[in-house]
Specification:
The complex is a heterodimer.
Chain A (H helix, E strand, L loop, with lengths): L26 H28 L1 E2 L9 E2 L3 H8 L1 H37 L5 H13 L2 H11 L7 H9 L16 H27 L2 H9 L4 H12 L1 H16 L3 H8 L6 H4 L2 H11 L3 H30 L1
Antiparallel strand pairs in A: 1-2
Chain B lengths: L1 H27 L12 E8 L2 H17 L4 E8 H10 L8 E5 L3 H6 L12 H6 L2 H6 L1 E2 L2 E2 L5 E2 L2 E6 H6 L14 H14 L6 E2 L9 H13 L17 H12 L20 E5 L3 H8 L3 E4 L10 E3 L2 E5 L7 H11 L2 H11 L2 E2 L2 H5 L11 H8 L1 E2 L10 E3 L6 H16 L4 H18 L7
Parallel strand pairs in B: 1-2, 1-3, 8-9, 11-15, 14-15
Antiparallel strand pairs in B: 3-12, 4-5, 6-13, 7-9, 7-10
Classes of the chains: A mainly alpha, B alpha/beta.
Chain lengths: ~325, ~450
C-alpha cells in the first residue's frame, strides 16, 4: 500500500524542473529574509550567546565582569553528584514523559477523532468540548488539576474515589507522592494536549476517500481491519507529524510542573523535575545564568541527536 | 496579474523585515529615559500585592504630588510574583529613582549596585524614629539602604471555640508559648474537634518551595537552636542536627495539616489553628470576631521565634543628582500619617515608633500587641539568642540561592524525603554558589 496515491496529486510537480530558475532568483531569498532574520535573531544569536554564557559565571544584574569558569559548569552537569544527579533525573523524567505521552496521547486523539468524525446531530458540540482544554493556558489547567488532585479528603479525585469505594479507598497525595507525581502530571498534560492532536487527525481522517471504505466493506473487512488497512495508512503522514510534534512538546515540558511545584500544588519536585524546569530555576531562582546556559546547550545537543535519529527512522519508512 | 502579485508580496516581505529590524533596534536602544531630574519627575516602582495596599500607596502618591508643585512622582506597580526578578533583571541605569524591595533581597541589590546609602537622603529624625525590626532590615554592612513603612510578624492564630472544645488554653505571651511536645499533642486533640478532621493550616497552598517556605519554617530552626548560615557557610549550619530534628518534627505535623485548597479553612472554622502572618488579620477578625486569638509559635527549646522583614523603600543610583526630591518622597512615606494610612490598609505593624504607639492594633493591650512585642526583641539570623524573638532572614547577596535551595529542600521534606539528605544537598548547593562568587565579598 502506498501512501502517496491517497494524497491529492500535487499540482505543478511535473513542470517544476522546466520552469526557468532565473525568474525565481531574487524572490526566494527576499521572501525567506524576514523568517531568516527572525530565526537568526531569536534562535541562532541566543544559542551562540548561551554557549558563551555557559563558560562564565554570569549573574543577572551584576555589574561586575563575570569570572571565566571554563567548562566547570559542564563538568558539574555531567559529574557533580548533586547537579548531575538532578540533570540525569530530569532527563529521565523527560524521556518517561515522552515515552508515555506520545503513544497514549496520539492513540487517544485518534480515537476521539474517529468518534467525532461521525455525522451525528450535535457533533459540533462534542468537537468543541474535546478541543476546549487546548484553549486554556497550561497554567490554568495546572491550577484546575491542583484542586482535583489535592491531597486530603477535600481533593476532588480523593472525594470521588472515596465515595465510589464506600470509604475503602483512603485519600492519596497524588502530587506529593514520589510514585504518583509524574503520573499525575502526565495525565493532566494528556488531557490538555489531546484535543489539538484530535483536530489535526480529524482533518486527516476526513481526507481519506470514502470509496476506500466502501471497497473494504465489499471485501468484507471488519471494523478492525478497516482501521488497520484503510484508516491508518490513509493518515500516516499526519500521524508521523503528530507523533513528532508531541515528542517535541514532551521534551520542553515546563509550565505545569512549575505551576504545580511553585504555587502550592505540593508537587514532588524531585520526582517530576524536567530539564527545562532545572534550567529555568537555575537562571531565575538561583540567578545562575551560566549553569542554566550550560544545561540548555547540553540539552540542545541531546535533542539534536534524538531528532536526527527520529528523522532517519521516519524517512526510511517513508521511502 | 501574476507579476503584480509577486511585487506586492515582495514589498510586503521587505516591509515585514523592516518592521522586525526597527523592533530590534528600538529594543537594543531602549534605555533612553535618563535626565528626569530636570523636570522634577521622580520614577517609583512598587510591588502590587493586596489591592488595598496598592490603592493606599496610589493615594499617598497623589497626596504627595498635590502637595509638591515641583516634584511629580510617577508610580509603576509591578505584580508581586515578578517584582524581585524584574528588578534583578533590570540594569542599574534603567531602574527608577526610588524602588520598593522585599527585605531579604536588599543585600543582593546592594551587591549589584542597585541601591545607594540613604544617609543624607532621608532625614535624620525619620531614620531615628524607625522601630528596631525596620532598622535592622534596612541595614547592610553598617549602612542604611532601605526604610520600611511597616514590618510583619508570623504567629499562630487560633479559633477560641475549637480550642475550648479541645480543653486547651491559648498562650498569650511569648513566655507562655507551647513547647513543641505540647504543640504536637494539641494538634492531635484539635484534629478531633476540627470539622475538617485537620487541626491546622500551615500555609501549604502558598508553596513551601517559594519564599513562603523559608519564611514560615525558619522560626522552627532558630527556636531549635539552629540557623541557616554562619560566616557565609551553610555546611555544618543548615544541615545541623538541630535543624534536622526541627524539620523532622515540622514534617510530622503533616497528618494534622489541612491542604486548605479553598484558602478559607480557618475563616470558616474548618481548622482550629493557622500559622501565618499579621496581614491575614482583617479577614480573620471579620470571619471569627471574638473567637480569634493570636498565639506565639511553638518553642523548640531555644524560646519561641518569629520571622520578620517586609517590603521597604530604597533609592537607586538613578536618584543621584535628584537626592532632594527622593528624600522628600521617602520622608513623606515615612511620616506617621502615611504609615498609618498604609497600615490601616494592610494591617501591618507600623514602622515608626511614634505611629506604633498610637496604633489601634499593635499598641499596648491591643489585639496584635504580641507582634510588636516580638519585634521589640529582634535579632539577625547569624546570632540567635534565647531572648530574641523576631529573627531576620540572612542578609546576604547570595540570598536568591539560599531561598531557592532551602525551598526545594522544604518541599521535598514535606513530601516525605529524608531530612538530613535534603539539607545536606541544599547546604552543598549554597556553598558552591558562594564559592563561585567569591563569597559575595563586596570589594
Amino acid at each position: 500500500m502506498t501512501t502517496t496515491s491517497l494524497l491529492p496529486p500535487k499540482s505543478g510537480t511535473p513542470e517544476t524542473p522546466a520552469r526557468p530558475a532565473r525568474r525565481r532568483g531574487a524572490a526566494g531569498p527576499a521572501m525567506a529574509a524576514p523568517a531568516m532574520l527572525l530565526l537568526i535573531l531569536f534562535v541562532a544569536v541566543p544559542f551562540v550567546a548561551a554557549i558563551g554564557f555557559s563558560l562564565y559565571n554570569v549573574r543577572l544584574g551584576d555589574p561586575r565582569e563575570p569570572n571565566f569558569m571554563g567548562f566547570t559548569q559542564y563538568a558539574r552537569i555531567l559529574t557533580d553528584p548533586d547537579v548531575s544527579a538532578q540533570f540525569l533525573s530530569s532527563l529521565g523524567h523527560n524521556l518517561i514523559f515522552a515515552v508515555i505521552v506520545v503513544p497514549v496521547q496520539t492513540a487517544l486523539a485518534l480515537a476521539l477523532a474517529m468518534l467525532v468524525k461521525r455525522a451525528l446531530p450535535g457533533m459540533a458540540v462534542f468537537r468543541a468540548v474535546y478541543f476546549l482544554p487546548v484553549i486554556f493556558p497550561m497554567a490554568l489547567v495546572a491550577i484546575i488539576w491542583r484542586l482535583i488532585l489535592a491531597r486530603g479528603d477535600q481533593g476532588l479525585l480523593n472525594a470521588t474515589l472515596n465515595f465510589f469505594s464506600g470509604g475503602n479507598f483512603g485519600a492519596q497525595d497524588w502530587l506529593g507522592s514520589e510514585l504518583t507525581a509524574l503520573g499525575s502530571v502526565i495525565v493532566l498534560s494528556i488531557w490538555q494536549g489531546c484535543g489539538f492532536q484530535m483536530v489535526i487527525l480529524l482533518a486527516a481522517l476526513q481526507q481519506v476517500p470514502g470509496e476506500l471504505y466502501e471497497a473494504a466493506e465489499l471485501d468484507r473487512a471488519n471494523g478492525w481491519q478497516r482501521l488497520l488497512h484503510v484508516t491508518l495508512p490513509g493518515i500516516r503522514t499526519t500521524l508521523v507529524f503528530v507523533a513528532l510534534y508531541t515528542t517535541i512538546l514532551s521534551l520542553r515540558v515546563f509550565d505545569q510542573i512549575y505551576v504545580l511545584a511553585k504555587s502550592g500544588g505540593g508537587l514532588n519536585e524531585d520526582a517530576t523535575r524536567t530539564v527545562m524546569y532545572q534550567a529555568v530555576t537555575a537562571a531565575f531562582d538561583q540567578n545562575n545564568i551560566g549553569r542554566a546556559s550550560a544545561i540548555s546547550v547540553v540539552f540542545f545537543i541531546l535533542v539534536l541527536i534524538l531528532s536526527l535519529i527520529q528523522r532517519r527512522l521516519t524517512r526510511e519508512r517513508e521511502a | 496579474m501574476r507579476s503584480r502579485r509577486k511585487t506586492r508580496l515582495r514589498a510586503g516581505s521587505m516591509g515585514a523585515a523592516g518592521v522586525a529590524l526597527a523592533l530590534v533596534l528600538t529594543a537594543c536602544g531602549g534605555n533612553g529615559e535618563a535626565g528626569n531630574e530636570a523636570d522634577g519627575t521622580l520614577e517609583v516602582w512598587a510591588h502590587s500585592g493586596q489591592a488595598s495596599e496598592a490603592e493606599a500607596l496610589q493615594s499617598l502618591v497623589d497626596q504627595f504630588n498635590d502637595a509638591n508643585e515641583d516634584i511629580t512622582v510617577e508610580l509603576t506597580l509591578v505584580p508581586e510574583a515578578d517584582y524581585t526578578s524584574t528588578v534583578q533583571a533590570t540594569k542599574a541605569e534603567d531602574l527608577p529613582d526610588i524602588m520598593e524591595m522585599d527585605a531579604p533581597t536588599m543585600a543582593s541589590f546592594v551587591y549589584d549596585r542597585k541601591l545607594v546609602p540613604l544617609e543624607g537622603i532621608v532625614s535624620e529624625e525619620v531614620l531615628e524614629n524607625r522601630i528596631g525590626g525596620v532598622k535592622e532590615s534596612g541595614t547592610y554592612n553598617g549602612e542604611t539602604y532601605a526604610v520600611g513603612m511597616f514590618d510583619v510578624g508570623l504567629g499562630l492564630w487560633g479559633n477560641a471555640s475549637l480550642l475550648e472544645a479541645a480543653g486547651l488554653e491559648a498562650p498569650a505571651t511569648a513566655g507562655e508559648a507551647w513547647s513543641v511536645e505540647e504543640f504536637r499533642s494539641n494538634l492531635a486533640k484539635l484534629a478531633e474537634v476540627s470539622p475538617s478532621g485537620n487541626a491546622i493550616d500551615l500555609g501549604e497552598a502558598n508553596s513551601f518551595a517559594a519564599e513562603w517556605g523559608l519564611f514560615t519554617t525558619s522560626p522552627n530552626l532558630w527556636s531549635a537552636g539552629g540557623t541557616l548560615m554562619k560566616d557565609g557557610k551553610a555546611e555544618g549550619v543548615l544541615n545541623s542536627q538541630e535543624n534536622v530534628d526541627a524539620l523532622t518534627e515540622w514534617s510530622s505535623w503533616k497528618e494534622y495539616t489541612d491542604p486548605n485548597t479553598s484558602g478559607t479553612a480557618f475563616q470558616e472554622g474548618q481548622v482550629a489553628l493557622t500559622w501565618t502572618g499579621n496581614w491575614m488579620y482583617p479577614g480573620f477578625s471579620e470571619a471569627l470576631g471574638e473567637d480569634l486569638v493570636l498565639m506565639p509559635l511553638p518553642d523548640f527549646g531555644n524560646g519561641t521565634k518569629a520571622g520578620h522583614g517586609s517590603w521597604q523603600w530604597g533609592a537607586t543610583p538613578a536618584a543621584e543628582g535628584n537626592e532632594e526630591a527622593a528624600g522628600a518622597f521617602l520622608d513623606f512615606l515615612m511620616s506617621d500619617e502615611a504609615i498609618t494610612a498604609m497600615t490601616d490598609a494592610n494591617a501591618a505593624i507600623p514602622g515608626s515608633t511614634s505611629a506604633l504607639e498610637t496604633s489601634e492594633l499593635y499598641g499596648d493591650g491591643k489585639p496584635l500587641a504580641l507582634f510588636a512585642d516580638n519585634l521589640a526583641s529582634a535579632c539577625g539570623s547569624e546570632d540567635v539568642t534565647a531572648e530574641c524573638i523576631a529573627v531576620a532572614r540572612p542578609v546576604t547577596p547570595g540570598y536568591p540561592t539560599v531561598t531557592s535551595s532551602v525551598g526545594s529542600a522544604l518541599l521535598a521534606i514535606w513530601g516525605g524525603a529524608d531530612v538530613k539528605e535534603e539539607l545536606d544537598k541544599a547546604a552543598r548547593a549554597i556553598d558552591s554558589d558562594f564559592t563561585d562568587n567569591n563569597g559575595y565579598e563586596d570589594e
